[in-house]
Design goal:
The chain is about 0% helix and about 45% strand. By secondary structure, it is an all-beta fold. Strands 4-5-6-7 form a four-stranded antiparallel sheet, with no helix packed on it. The protein is built from one helix and 15 strands; from the N terminus they run βαββββββββββββββ.
Amino acid sequence: YMAWSGAVLIPVEPNITSNAPDLQTGMYLANTNGAKPKHISDLMGRDPVWSKQAGVFFAKTDKGAVEVNPDGEVTQLPAPIAVRPVLSPDAHAWLWASDGFNDVPVGLWIGAVGPEAPSQVLNARVVYAAWSPDGQNILFVKSAGSKDLQLYRVARADGKPILIHQDVTVNLESAAWLTP
């Protein structure tokens, strides 16, 4: 999980540390300069991803999502989420869909990058969400059941979902925004 900055975030699981007494469970940050990797957190980071826009890694942990900067500073995001947030193109806001993990209500959430508490946009199950290229809108699919999917758009400014289409039957992960 290498960053553009030349840093690599390495999660080390307990089964690895049982065979290597010099290692601790948690997250390590290594630079490509050959220095020894630095243990930066006891939290077990899973599925780390580099965000080019924000210049940080995001990772899932048992205590929620964290961001890790290339200097190794770990910041707990201000909500106990178990999924990586999706950062806006301007890197000033993030969104995620909660499935009820850690008693966070099910729904779509938006938060500013920083310590402010996020706000819930929708209190229903969301199966897919993506920012528009300009970061002003979010496209998401609400699930009312296994076969009943609805496509919505919400403006970042007002946070009010607008139904676009009922009975969505396509895989939106390969969809793209069309911009003028």
